[in-house]
Design brief:
By secondary structure, the chain is an alpha+beta fold. The chain has helices spanning 3-26, 45-58, 71-75, 103-117, and strands spanning 31-39, 62-63, 68-70, 86-91, 94-99, 120-123, 150-152, 159-166, 169-176, 183-194, 198-202, 212-214, 219-230, 233-245, 250-254. The chain contains four helices and 15 strands. The longest helix has 24 residues, at 3-26. The radius of gyration is 22 Å and the shape is globular. The N and C termini lie far apart (70 Å). The model is unreliable at 8-14 and 256-263 (pLDDT under 50).
Length: 263
Amino acid sequence: MKRADRWLLAALYLSLAAVMGWAATHREREVVLSRFVTSLRGRTPNQVHNVALAARSINGRWIRPGEVFSFNRAVGPWTRDAGYQRAPVSYDGEVVPSWGGGVCQASTTLYNAALLAGLAVVERHRHQWIPKYVAPGRDAAVAYSNIDLRLRNDFPWPVRLGGEVRGQLVEFRVVAPERPPGRFEIRQRVAMVAPPAVVRQPWREGLPARRVRNPGRPGGRVLTYRVRLQEGREVARELLSDDTYPAMNRLLLADGDGQGGLN
């Protein structure tokens, strides 16, 4: 091993030892800065498995003062070798199977816990369509290697992330030795709503027998703010995102002559 490599390993060891030593000293007086829960009801078993695996990868992770946390780096590639399973994801208006399907619910739940704790948002992306498990503007899409959720700890102390699946709920929380003054709230303003269009597709052999191929989903524009309150009064307001989601078409199968269909 080269001398420079030994120095780097020693520095990393000392940094980790400092955090772990601090944790052992302060664990007994930790406070929960925030927690956020989303429902897994309606998700497939494989999606739930993938969400739980991602939550376990993050549970217990520390973010040091000034450090930037990367969801993708913490969770790693969601591949079969990593234990992930193929599960449904929405792609271009269709539901298709993909390795790690459902992981975005873990990143979204963590994102909301981070917002309520006061962590800084370095990188966040909306989904193509409004997800069903959280309000529009409060989602955080991820795709390994190119779409990430990154959070920065601007507090003068380390924070610890917790994540777990319990039954049909996934919860993330942020824990610290102290609680900063005041509290944070998320407020939103809906600027526009776009109803889904109805698209009729002639039936052909190989298509499913059900008349509604996709029930559709409304779109719209929503502005999301983080408000800091002290003694019940607003002292700061931060625009987190200005998101515009397209409406997902309601896709129906027409009758054999192509003229009918379900309204």
